[in-house]
Amino acid sequence: MTRTALTGEEVLTAAARLVRAHGPGALTMRRLATELGTAVTSIYWHVGNRESLLDALVARTVQEMGAIRPVGATPHARIVSVARALRTALRERPHLIAMVHERGLTERMFWPAQQALVHEAHAAGLRGELAAEAVRAVQFQVVGYVLTERNRERSPQQHPSEGELWDAPGAGDDPALARALAAPADTERLFQVSLDALVGCLLAPGDDAAKAPWRPDPDDGGSVAVSGGPYPQ
C-alpha cells in the first residue's frame, strides 16, 4: 500500500540510513521511495531532485557534527571527551563525511569541535601558537586514528598474521610483549592511551619547551604552523 503521509525529515533520515549502510551510490530516488513505501513523486515533492537531496544530507551531517559538546571536570577530561565524541561521529557516518568533504565543507564540519577545543585549551592556560597546535594535534590524532582503523578493517586478511610473526626472541626476549603483540589490537584502549598521552603532553605544566617538546626548532628551518584540516575517507 502506498504511503500518503510523509515529512521531509523522514525522507532525509531514510536517505542517510541508505548512505550509511551502502554508500552514496545506493541512494536512488526509486530505492528511497521503496524504503519509505511511497511514490517517487512524493520524494521529489519533499526534497527536490537527487542532488538537492545530497545537499540536504550534507547540511544535516554538518549540523549533527556541531552537536559535539565537552564533558568532564578538567580541561584534560573535556578535551578527551571531545576527541572521543568526534571519533564516534566520524566512524558512524564515513560515507556522509566523504560527501561533506567532496562538497568542500570539511572545515565547516570540524569548526564546532575546534571551537570546543579552543575553549578548553584557553582554560588550560594555552595561548597563541601553543593553543593552535593543541587544537590541531588533537584533531589530526582523531582523524588519523579513524583512517587507520578503517584501513585495517577494509584490508584483506594478512598472511602471516601478527600472532605468527611475534615470538619471544623477536620481541627482544620479552615474552609478555610477544604475547601482547600477537593478540588482536584493542583499538578502543589504544585510542584512549594515545589520546591521554597526547593531551597530557599538550597541557603539561612548565615553560613552552616543556609543554611542547616536539616543536621544531625555527633555526633548523622548522615551522610551528600547520595548515588545513584532516578528513576521513
Folded structure, characterized:
- The chain has 233 residues and is mainly alpha-helical.
- The protein folds into 2 domains: 56 residues, Orthogonal Bundle (Arc Repressor Mutant, subunit A); 147 residues, Tetracycline Repressor, domain 2, CATH 1.10.357.
- Helix content is 65%, strand content 0%.
- It contains 12 helices and no strands.
- The two termini are 39 Å apart.
- One of its GO terms (molecular function) is transcription cis-regulatory region binding.
- This is TetR family transcriptional regulator.
Task: Kindly list the characteristics that best describe this protein.
233 residues, mainly alpha, Arc Repressor Mutant, subunit A, Tetracycline Repressor, domain 2, 2 domains, 12 helices, 65% helix
Q: What's the short story on this structure?
A:
This protein folds into two domains: 8-63, Arc Repressor Mutant, subunit A, CATH 1.10.10; 69-215, Orthogonal Bundle (Tetracycline Repressor, domain 2), CATH 1.10.357. It is 65% helix and 0% strand.
Oligomer: single chain
Rounded to an integer in angstroms, the radius of gyration calculated over CA atoms is: 22 Å
**Order of helices and strands, N to C?**
HHHHHHHHHHHH
Structural class: mainly alpha
Query: If you average the pLDDT, what whole number results?
Result: 81
Task: Profile the largest sheet.
Answer: none
What best-fitting shape do the alpha-carbon axes yield?
Answer: flat
* Low-pLDDT segments, ≥5 res: 206-233
Number of strands: 0
Question: What is the level 1 CATH name of the largest domain?
Answer: Mainly Alpha
CATH-defined architecture of the largest domain: Orthogonal Bundle
Proportion of strand residues? under 5%
